[in-house]
Structures are given as structure tokens and as C-alpha cells.
Amino acid sequence: MLWLGSRTITVRILDLVKVCGLCLVINHLRELIKMKKLRLMTKLFCLSALFFAGSVQAVVLDFKPSSLGVAQGIHDSVSISNGGITANITAFTITNNGAGSITGTTLLSGGTGVFVASETSKSIGVTSGSETGNLDGGDNAADPDEGLLFAFNKQVILDFIDFDSFSVSGGDDFNLTVDGVLVLFGINSSSVSPLIMAAAPGSPTDEFRFNNIIGTNFLFWADDVNDSFRIDTIEVSAVPVPAAAWLFGSALIGLFGFSRRKKS
Fold first, then answer.
1. Are residues 42 and 147 in the same domain?
2. Structural contact between residues 217 and 150, judged by C-beta atoms closer than 8 angstroms
3. Whether 50 and 82 share a structural domain
4. What's the confidence (pLDDT) of residue 4?
């Protein structure tokens, strides 16, 4: 009986050792699963970062009457939407110090305002008096400087603009004020600026691509007596939400959920 009792005790001890070993194996497997989960989250983080970085696409805003939903002619304001981006466009006369500093603006309405050209011309300008509907620079109170304000529903990156009737030989140049700050002044195809991409040889002289110009309110305006042009097309991109912000939150939620399951 004593031998049998000892054998029984021995067997139970061995069983206990096996159970403990199994527990260690299970705990080790749990740690491996946790590590694999963290690795998976890291991969998802990187993939999502690439996705968000590459998913930003420029949207084209063309200013045909059909795109604006209005008839050809003069309007107090017009708006256009594409790809979740909306711009409300209004026209102003502008006073400035001759060096790009705006000292006053007057919103145009009631027979003056945004001029929408024909479906074929597909461009917009400004009518502040009896002139043609182009953005004109003036030299007196009867012929004021003019501008178009593009107010977007979200922060955007300005990628590209195509002007109409814009001629370097004719003396045209443009100015750009973004969110109340002058960023470009007296610009034409021969201008050099870190905010403008260099044009390829033979490129149209009325098209411009930009570097890192970000904002919500973009005022394109003319101030030289020789300026007289309209705007055909603008391309903008929405400013992306940093992928890291999305993934950091997702990782925290995932780890929190794993921790809760482990405790339960």
C-alpha cells in the first residue's frame, strides 16, 4: 500500500509537472500571438501611411457655365464642387500700395461681380464697370484693380492654374494672396519663385504649377494697368489627415481590446 501510495503521489507529481509545462507553453503561445499582433499592427501602420500619403488626388475646377450651374453673364457669386471640395467665388475691387500690400477691398454685386464667359470660353473674370469682364489692373478710382476670391470649404493645396488671355508680351502678370497673406506678386512665365514649378520648354505661358501653397481663401488679383485676363481652370488637392494620427488611435484601440480580453 505504501508503494502504491508513493507511485500514486509520483504520478500526480508528474501530471502536475506536465500541467505546469502546458501552462508555460500556453503562456508562451499567448506572448507569441501578442507579438505577432503587434507586428501586424506595425505592418498595417506602414501600409496605411502609404495609402493615405498616396490617396490624395487633385480635383479639377473648370469654370464653364454648366459646371457652375449658371448662365453666361454677371453674377454676385458662383460656386463649384468636385470630389468633396467646394469653392465659393466672389469678385472684388482692390486698393493696394503698389507693392502687393492690400489696403482695402470692395465686394462687387448688383450688376457687377463675377463674369462667367461662354461654354466654349469656359472661364471667369470680373466686371466692375464697363470693361470686358477680364481681371484688370487699374490706375485710378474709375478703373480699379480687380480680383477673384476662391473660398474653399476646407484647407486645400493649390496645384495648378490655367489663365485665359494671359500674355507676357502683353504685360500680364498676377498676384496671389492666401488667407490674407501675400504669397506671389507680379508673376508671369519668366518669374522665378520657390512656390512655382519651373515650366518645361515650350509650355504654355498662361499655365502655372505650384509648390506647397496651402490655404482656404485664395485671392487672385491684378494690379498693373496692362493686366487683362481670366481664369480657365484651377486644380487643388485636399490636405490629407496625417496617416499617423489615424493609425496611432487604431493601435491604441487594438491594444486596449487585447488587454481587456486577456484580463477576462
1. no
2. yes
3. no
4. 45
Residues 6 or more apart from 31 whose CB is under 8 A from it? none
Residue 234: HSE in the Cβ half-sphere, 13 Å Cα cutoff: 26
- Per-residue pLDDT of 175-216, as tens digits, reads 999 999 999 999 999 999 999 998 878 889 999 999 999 999
Give residue 35's pLDDT band: very low, low, confident or very high (50, 70, 90). Answer: low
Q: What is the pTM of this model?
A: 0.73
- Whole-Å CA distances, 27 to 14, 17, 51, 92: 20, 15, 36, 71
For residues 89 and 172, membership in a common domain is answered with: yes
Tell me how many domains the chain contains: 2
Q: Sign of the CA dihedral 18, 24, 28, 29?
A: positive
- Model confidence pLDDT, tens digit, residues 91-139: 999 999 988 999 999 999 999 999 999 999 999 999 998 677 999 998 7
Based on the fold, state whether residues 132 and 222 are members of the same structural domain.
yes
- 199 by Cβ neighbours in 10 Å (0-12 / 13-18 / 19+) ranks as middle
Q: Do 225 and 250 belong together in one domain?
A: no
Segments forming the whole domain that contains residue 170 = 59-238
